[in-house]
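Dear support,

We are seeing what looks like truncated structure output for some complexes. This example has two components. We would appreciate it if you could run it in full and send us the complete token output so we can diff it against ours.
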Amino acid sequence: MLRLKFRNCRLTSTPSRNYIHSNAVRSNLHSTNLKLGDLSKSGRVEEARQLFDKMPEKDEYTWNTMIVAYSSSGRLSDAKELFRRNPVKNTISWNALISGHCKNRSKDEALSLFWEMQLQGRSFNEYTLGSVLKMCASLGLLQRGEQIHGCTVKTAFDSDVGVVNGLIDMYGQCRRVSEAEYIFKTMPGERRNNVTWTSMLTGYSRNGFAYKAIECFRDMRREGTQPNQFTFPSVLPACGAVCARRVGVQVHGCIVKSGFKTNIFVQSAVIAMYAKCRDLETARALLQDMEVDDVVSWNSLVVECVREGFKEEALSLFRRMHERDMKIDEFTLPSVLNCFASSRTEMMKIASSVHCLIVKTGYGSYKLVSNALVDMYAKRGTMDSALKVFERMIEKDVVSWTALITGNGSYEEALKLFCKMRAEGGISPDQMVTASVLSASAELTLLEFGQQVHCNHIKSGFPASLSVDNSLVSMYTKCGSLEDAEAVFSSMETKDLITWTALIVGYAKNGKAKDSLEAYKLMIDNGVRPDYITFIGLLFACSHAGLTEEAQRYFESMRTVYRITPGPEHYACLIDLYGRSGDFAKAEELLNQMEVEPDATVWKAILAASRKHGKIETGERAAKTLMELEPNNAVPYVLLSNMYSAAGRQEEAANLRRLMKSRNISKEPGCSWVEGRGRVHSFMSEDRRHQRMVEIYSKVDEMMLLIREAGYEPDVSFALHDLDKEGKELGLAYHSEKLAVAFGLLAVPDGAPIRIIKNLRVCGDCHSAMKYISRVYSRHIILRDSNCFHHFRDGSCSCGDYW
DNA sequence: GTAGGGTTAG
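Here is the complete output from our reference environment:
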């Protein structure tokens, strides 16, 4: 009000001569300032500097425009120097300088200018906050961003829509979607502009919340806000991510109507969307119709062709890019390299020529390209080449490590690499590497390690991912921790075939046949089609629970309902079941009916059945085939020799043992291990290497005493042959699994289950002892042997004494 | 008339 009055006053008074003169100068200055601004905007900084130096008179605007010219072209020290010399500094001068540092990602400098500004008594405003927030967003500086958020609340700038937009974007880019959502939802609806909507949408889309992104797009239009060239490239990837082609087509229609059709960002996103929705034809046609050869659009199509397995098409696109003299970039090459990761060996020649091209063109120094090279070599099993590329990389990121970890054939090596990645610092695991490491932990049955990876993943704040959740379900079942597997399973919003199958197989291997079949029923009710693996789980469950009729029914439905040809694994389960339930003839009949070549698993089942039924002839056939299939396996020798002994054919038994010796085949030594406090404690039979050996042996003695009182009788048929009775009993007492359980009783806290893993099948005497131990000590003992899990609780075992 | 906020390709 005051200012208005003052202005009016000036306007009504008669202008003096001096005033007219100064007005003329001002108008001259004004037009030069505008010229300076134009030069700055078009990036002609040197010309701007020359003009600035020549100007006889300068005002605030002149100085600020020149600071902007330097600042936005990255000449930060020039900007700073000019800022220092500027006699008419104002808030805009500060903002211009800070914005330059923010755009240049000089975060320390930018933030210290931000604080310095305030120390010098100059308050920041909505523009300052906007710049700094954008920098926090693009660098993922969550803590700084939160600090700035605090400033906006204290100074009430959080009512400025530009600042709010910056906050939403910052939280979105720092993967804090719920914070972004909270700010978005609590602001008055009428204040949201299209930047607000687009920022929220982008937050959803980038963080894997595709459906929410699509919903956000609909709400935006419903509220009457027009989407623009920024909105479309954000919503389209969300449609692609969930294969929502119909929604994608609607968005496409909206684009055509809105006139953003020719925008290169929009167009490339449309092509990518169709390609992701497996409509390569439309994608190809759109690419053909484009007025310019846009490398991004071509790249998206190459990527999708690779993903859909059309390698030839991808390579031909790549060739055509060459022919059209398009600039191949660091995004084209990784997709092309992906073609070779899983291709035939003949293709490696082309792969080598692409690698040469990369070296020649200097693209080897691009992270994306090197990552793809590491990935390709690792997946092809040429780890030395992969490591060579990896070690030469200056800046390794989580993708580089993932390529190395996932491609590695050895699980142990994979975990070591993962630990190394964590130890070298600065790199936090993402969903891809988490899923991969969880699978490796599962294969090695490292529950504690898997749990740590799980905890880390929760803390990381990544949204739910199907592949991580599936790996978790699988890891927990493979480590015998069904409660945890169930907890993850029931927390999952979407489940796929892999999820259900992991649970079905998991229950089966943990002796929970009923739950396994129940889960199968639920899966079918949920409209999920079973596959080859699902049926292995189901038949395994049936065979271990003696459910002959059910097994036959499932086996039939495999072929008749789901058109899946049964494989050797399925036959092995059924043969095992018949053998065990006493129907040897059926087992043999099934063997002869097999459409596929029987493998070692099938012959092992036949051998076990023959042994149980004393069918030496079939046993001989099975054992001999097994000796050929697995020349280093001692099992067929031992089992057949035992069958001879049992039939009183001692000489043949001895011959077989001699043959075994002459072929240098020995029984794989039994080994049991317990995981504890980040260490694996392993025990062999009569092992005396452990640090707490004395304690462990006296615990074994106590154990044996207590369980004998409870009714346990040692079964010396499982002991070595050439000892007297007492020696045999002692030998039994110090079997690896008994040492492991004794250690577990000493080291595992009361109430927690003792988890043991054994490389071979558990010995019959140990199995019986474990049952007693679980009762006498009131402990849940979980023993995973080479075949399945045994949950010993209160004197009985989940396997129903069959393994 | 000077300063801030949203976008595509692995």
